[in-house]
Each structure stands twice: as C-alpha cells, then as structure tokens.
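Hello,

Our lab assistant flagged a job as stuck in the queue for most of the afternoon. It eventually completed. Since we weren't sure the result was trustworthy after the delay, we are filing this so someone can double-check. Below is the sequence as submitted and the structure that was eventually returned. Let us know if re-running is recommended.
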Amino acid sequence: MFTGIIEEVGQVVAFVQTKTAWSLQIAAKLVTQDVALGDSLAVDGCCLTVTRFDSRHLGFDVLEETRRLTVFNELKAGSLVNLERSLKAESRMGGHFVSGHIDGLGRVEIFEPRGSDHYLRITAPAGLGRYLVHKGSIAVDGISLTVAEVAGDSFAVWLIPHTLAATNLREKKTGGGVNLEFDLLAKYVEKLLTLRSN
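-- returned structure --
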C-alpha cells in the first residue's frame, strides 16, 4: 500500500529482456537506504518487488504483461521514474490509498503552463471514466492528484511547481503515456452495487 506522495525521482539505468523476465535497473539515493530483498516499491505507481540492490541501485524483474500494459513499454535508459516506498503503519497519510496495481495506460492530451501552475489533461482508456469524480483522487504515474475536471473518459488536474520539481511529470509530452490507478473506493462501490442489483 502506498500514498501517492513521491519520495524520489530515480533514473533508469537499464531495462532489458532476459530469458525469464524483463530486468529493470534504477539508480536512486534515498529509497535505497533501508531497502531489503522482497520489499515492495512503487515505480511510476506500479508495485514492484525488489530482487537486487546496492547502495545506489535497485533491481526488479518485470513481467511481460506489466511491461505491455503500463508506461513501462516506453522506458529506456535515462528515463526518469517516480519512486515511493510502501506505507508504514506509523506514517502520515499525505495522499490517498494507492495499491500500486495499474488500471490502465492514459495518454497526455494537454500539458501546458497556466500562470505559475501547470494544466494536465489526460485521456483514460475507454470506459474507465466511470471511476472519475470531480475533486476525487487519482494516481498518475503513482502521484496522488485531485481531479479538477471530468469529461467522459478524460480528466484534468492542476500541478503546483513543487509537484513538477519533485516528480517525473516535468518530462511528459503530449501523446505520452502515464500509468493510471483509479481510487479504490470507486471500484469497490461499483462492485457492491453490481452485486446488489443482481
């Protein structure tokens, strides 16, 4: 479980296919300090298991399915990725509950400065707009954000300068992909209402 509050932006050192899985190596400083084998770490919002590490690097095995269905299919050496360690029971809850299980790949529609802030509009996969609520929460590349506008399967968020400085969103371009995880509450409510109506 995560909160969507990014701790560090890491850099992809290598992302290559091996006989058993895709091997992802990321350079990082902060999140490597107390890491252990088997720890869960959110990489661009996707929960991955640490399979190797040293004081400056983290290694993960990535399934082909994960690579295909997420923004990982666009990763290459030098790409910046958002990193967050899993939530500790005694931690402050600054964002919202984020599971690290990506619901779909969104596409950047508009990304532009407006005054001192930035406006970001994203198109979600068809049909997933049903989980979007004005002023609700969404995780974009693992970042907990507040939905400012909803129109069908697209939505917009506003970004303060700190969010751009502390995450990889500063690299995003129109047409680029982003990992989306919709609020857990919306998915549970839908499931319960479906069961109730049946």
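-- support follow-up --
The delay was a queue issue, not a problem with the job. The result is valid. Residues 8-85 form a domain with the Elongation Factor Tu (Ef-tu); domain 3 fold (CATH 2.40.30.20). The radius of gyration is 17 Å.
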